[in-house]
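Sample 3 of the quickstart, ligand adenosine-5'-diphosphate:
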Amino acid sequence: MADYILVLDEGTTSTRAMLFASDGVLVASAQEELTQHYPQSGWVEHDAGEIWEKTLKCALAVIPDAGGAAMIAGIGITNQRETVVAWDKDTGKPLTRAIVWQDRRTEPFCTALREAGHEADVQRRTGLLLDPYFSGTKMRWMLDNVAEVKIAADAGTLAFGTVECWLVYKLTGGASHISDASNASRTLLMELAGEGFDEGLCELLGVPHSALPQVTDMSGQLAETEVSLFGREIPITGLAGDQQAATIGQACLSPGETKATYGTGAFVLTNQGETIPHSTNRLLGTVLTQLDGKRTYAIEGSVFVAGSLVQWLRDSLGIVDVASQTEELARSVPDTGGVTIVPALSGLGAPHWRPDARGVITGLSFASGKAELARAALEAMAHQTHDLAQAFAADGTPWGTLRIDGGMAANDWMAQDLANMLDLTVERPGFVETTALGAAMLAAAGAGLYPDLESAAAKMRGTLSAFEPDMDEATREERLSRWQSALDAA
Ligand code: ADP
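Result:
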């Protein structure tokens, strides 16, 4: 019986194919690095043709481990969100390089839209802010600046899509031009409550509605691969943007359940159930799931500097040789001796939104050494997360549990400090590839291996470690007041 799930995990720096058994166990994986193009300061591009070729190569590399394409029940795709691909529907070829989510080139257009007073309305309708991060203004830039894109638009052959949409198009030999609701909710072109892309928002951003994909569910029989690729049509049964996939992979399927990914930066999403989020704290509202046409939502907040602070301790200050040494250093002293770090090395993200802020270290004395600095760096993760927790609560979404993942989550001291400072149970899965696992859960449910996503999550989620709060209120208060003073200085 076909009961393997093939996940295509399309990251920013690499593409991967991962083969899962139906119980969530990873059986095989293959990975290829993606070329990053930086044509100017603030610009980041990918070659969409390379993304497709390397994805196909990785998929072909792992399928034999399942015993062939006949044994694969469904394909799940998860991807770097917001990145835009433009291609020609007649040739199936990219018309220009993909503009990557990190790219800031549409800042002037966003500023113009903000100055014209559109932000409040756009935020109410889409859950997003007018920022170059999101896809819509990148599409407009291509139309204004790339002749091939404009010509295809005039000829009616232009197709726009985020990365999962592009891959589905190629996998189906051009038969399906679809985007799942979680990816679509990152474009500025879809209302959180709306079924498909919104004509009014398309008009505001100057993007032709006819070039956009059809918005679909995230699980189910969504499309089928072209027979020539794998020797058999394989159903595509799961699609999700990476952060939504990670939230699903952490089984945050009920309101209040929260996941935080600590990588270079930190991404936090809280399940908001069927209530459309309306943040008054500049957090983002986003689609978490769309299943059988019904949506659930999440509130999202991100912190710019998390693991990159540890990298800075390692590479610029030489305090540690490897990131994991921060743990033994933090444990080697009873406290930081009053040292506090505000890691605003590239400004402050949610909930402060001060891109102009810069980092600060307060409370230095002759007693301050490597250990105090390393401990203060790890403490900063809990402080930043605490501020997010407060903003989420002020938006009506207090956290129930906190489920952590990402490279930095391997640090037990940090995990315990998070539990202490948030006064919450912190859970960490044994299998940390939560993004791929979430896509596998969606695809397994979509392929009918499980009756619904909840059952898939219950069976496929592996073992957990839990960290229980163990700090007195006075210590927590002292830490927070020190943090607040340092933050004011930043
Ligand atoms: P990304 O996906 O953003 O590339 P990862 O999830 O791979 O990031 O996490 C890598 C980051 O985590 C690095 O910035 C590194 O400094 C940090 N990191 C990794 N292991 C540890 C650890 N044990 N303690 C503290 N930080 C760590």
